[in-house]
Every structure is written in structure tokens, then in C-alpha cells.
Amino acid sequence: MGGYLIYFAIIILVPLWAQFRVKGSYAKYSKVSSSSHMRGEEVARKILDANGLFHVGIEETRGHLTDHYDPRSKTIRLSSANYHGHSVAAAAIAAHEVGHAIQDQQDYAFLRFRHALVPVANLGSNFSWILIMIGFLAGYSGFVLLGIIFMAAAVVFQLITLPVEFNASNRAMDQVVSLGVIRNDEERETKKVLNAAALTYVAAAAVAVMELLRLILIYTGMQRND
């Protein structure tokens, strides 16, 4: 019983800790103006144009930290605070999303693999627990195994997301430094914002792997009891 309590505490607290780090870093550095005083939209446009991505659009979107790159419409969408903001945080996040656009342009292998996994990952996320619960309630280990397979697809998607996000952040740092968006003394602050954001993906992947391993152990136990 104690082991289960520790396990559930970890899978709840780790994501909360990651979110706390992200919100804390963003709140801190969204109040620090960048030396270039460029708005997030201007940062994104500058990096896009410098890399020949004139066709990629930039739009303002609602919400808090809802920034993302849409590969289908070739559009970077920045939340209002980052679209209009001229802080270190706004520059870092805008540059990160442009990093994904550059990945798309260069056919970055992990990004392509992640895109290919989207339908399978969505299916796994939606149906895995239904199959697993049916298997547990009815005592059908085959349903549990099928659910685990579906869940494994979703876990692979999360693991593939890690190199995609870290690579986008590395590209972002290279761009903001080489194009003079930030000064050398601002690199540390920019990295803190990018690293904090990456923690959410690391935490999500770690929790997903732990949950998958737990279910595999339960399944093997069911097999021994059959």
C-alpha cells in the first residue's frame, strides 16, 4: 500500500513541480525587457526572414502560454502576451516556435516521425484506458495487453517529443544570439525560460513511462495467475 501511495504521489507531484517551474520562470522573465526591445512577433519575423521562411505566417492567439507552430498552415501562433511583449521570455518563446518552423523546413527526422505518430498517439490516448479497464473488470488479460500496446504508442510519441523540443530550443538560442536579439549577458536568462518549458515535456514523458511500466507489471502478474 505504501508503495502505491509513493507512486501516485510522484506521478502527481512531478508534473505539478514542472508546471510551477515554467510559470515561475515565465512570470519572472516576462517582466525583464530584452536589450533589443523587440516584440515577440518581431523576433519571430526576424528569425523567419533570416532563414528564408518568408512564407511562414505569424498570428496572435488567445490563452496563456498557448504558443505553437502549426506545420499544416505554416503558421506560428503566439499568445497575446508574447506576441506584443518585448521581454526576454517573449523573445525566447517566439524563437522556440520558429525553431519548429526551421525543423519543418529542414525535414528534421524526429519532427517528421512525431507528425507520423500523431494519429496513432491520439488513438492510444483515447482508447488505451477503456480497453485496460474492461480487461481489469472482466478479467480478460488480452484486453489489458491491447490497451498497453495502445498506451505504448502514446508513450513513444511523448518520448519522440523530447528531442524535438530540445532541438527547437537549441536552434532558438543560436538564432537570438547570432541575430542580436539578445546580448551575451541575457543568454542565461533566455536559457532559463527555455529549460523550464522543456521540463514539462520531460515530466510528462517520465510519468507516462512509469505508468506504462506499472501496467506491464500488472499484466505479467495476471498472466502468472491464469
Automatic annotation (TrEMBL):
Protein's GO biological process: proteolysis
Pfam families: Zn_peptidase_2
Spans traversing the lipid bilayer: 6-22, 116-137, 143-164, 193-219
Keywords of this entry: Hydrolase, Membrane, Protease, Transmembrane, Transmembrane helix
Record flagged with keyword Protease: yes
GO molecular function: peptidase activity
PANTHER family, per database record: MEMBRANE PROTEASE YUGP-RELATED
Protein name, UniProt field: Zn-dependent protease
Organism: Cytobacillus solani
